[in-house]
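Progress report, Aim 2. The chain analyzed during this reporting quarter is listed below.
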Amino acid sequence: DIDDVGHKYYLELELEDVLDKDRTVSCTAEVLYPLGSKTSAPDVQVTVQGELRSTEEADQEFYNQMRSLEKELEAENIPDSHGNIPPELEPIHLLAWVASGFLIWQNSTENTKFHLAQVKRVKQVKRSDEDLQFDYVLLLHEMVSQEVLPWEVTVLWHPQNGARVSQS
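Predicted structure tokens for the chain:
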């Protein structure tokens, strides 16, 4: 619907449980894109039918593991050419998925349809504060043109603060 406030979209989604790949949860979302503003975030109202499991414990475990590494994590080609993601890199891939969502939101038009194809490269960067920092090169597949586009993006993450994404 288009009204005097902006563009409104209604979505029905199936969300995959991050901790249990065989479980999905249904939800509906109302997304309102404000008129005339390309920099304002859309207003999103989500209703979940069912219960999402908490990832608090897994988040804290991942955070502690990354903070305790003697050498910063570096990895390439996630998933590999066969679609496999090593279990220890699943959280890295999930953060890339969050970052790709930000990139897609910032760069999409009515004529594009982006999809995260692969983490080409990721490197953890040591920080003096409590955040974890990961510098990514993500490959986004633009489904309409069939182009695969590389994007450089930095993700800061802390279990209590969530993810913050910036692109270069």
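The first helix runs from residue 56 to 68. The chain has two helices and eight strands. These observations will guide the mutagenesis work planned for the next reporting period.
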